[in-house]
Amino acid sequence: MSLLIGTWNVNSIKMRREHVEKLLQEKSIDILALQETKVETEKFPNLIFKKLGYEVYHYGGKGRNGVAILSKFKAEDIINGFKGLKEEDQFPDVKERIIGIKISSEKIKELWIFSIYIPNGSPVNSDYYFYKLQFLWKFREFLETNFSRNFSLILMGDFNVAPEEIDVYDSEIWRENICFTERERKAFKILLDFGLVDALRLKYSNKSGIFTWWDYQFSAFNKNQGMRLDHILITESLVNKLQNIWVEKSARGWKKPSDHAPVLAEFNF
DNA sequence: ATGACTGGAGTTTCCAGA
Length: 269
Known about the structure:
Elements: E1 2-9, H1 13-27, E2 31-35, H2 46-51, E3 55-59, E4 67-71, E5 77-80, E6 98-103, E7 111-117, H3 127-146, E8 152-158, H4 171-174, H5 182-192, E9 196-198, H6 199-203, E10 213-214, E11 226-227, E12 230-235, E13 242-247, E14 263-268
The protein binds one DNA strand through residues 11-12, 14-15, 36, 38, 62-64, 120-122, 128, 160, 177-179, 213, 215-220, 227, 229, 256, 258-259.
């Protein structure tokens, strides 16, 4: 069976609700991870998506952050935040940044799917910056506590890190910019070393100019001056099931768009 | 005009985003 999944930082579900509906229906998406819903848990438009046939798993706070998963499969288990870590490691906004569900079906056996929103961390070297680095390290610890590399895991979301030089439009200009500093890229690599593969690079190993975010300013989208910050990370057991993966760039060109485009991936189970 | 950011909070202007 074919499974179409995706991730999208929508920059407010209130502003982008119709965009999400359009994407779900036009592409017949099975599971969509959302970030920056920017609404409190109970104010998410659950009913709208339930009418379209999706289960809704969301946690959010007032005004910022917020992660959701819209799924045609019912969750057998849910993780929200850094499950299993000590009390002092429960960062104040971690529940608004990490949500995961376990699904199973006749063909799919115990697949965990996460929606992730890593802190932005700007400006570089600020308290926020070091919070971001800590968050990335702690996230690796969270994975080790709950899973192993032998699990079937799909971690998707806005990681706020452009991993390689080809993931920014001009690596010299962006060298010391937030999302592309050495320390952020190193922390991202350490995360991958858990046993994760950057799914887009399985299909487009050396292609430059593939971005998922473009600044609202400076006509950045028209000039394709962006960064690849949104990722679908998978464990080894899913690698040979990946059929296709792409950035749905068209959505960045819709009226009143999010500054991120969705990343979609098709698996065959 | 030859350039121009957006969303949310909460009150007219600031903060955060990347």
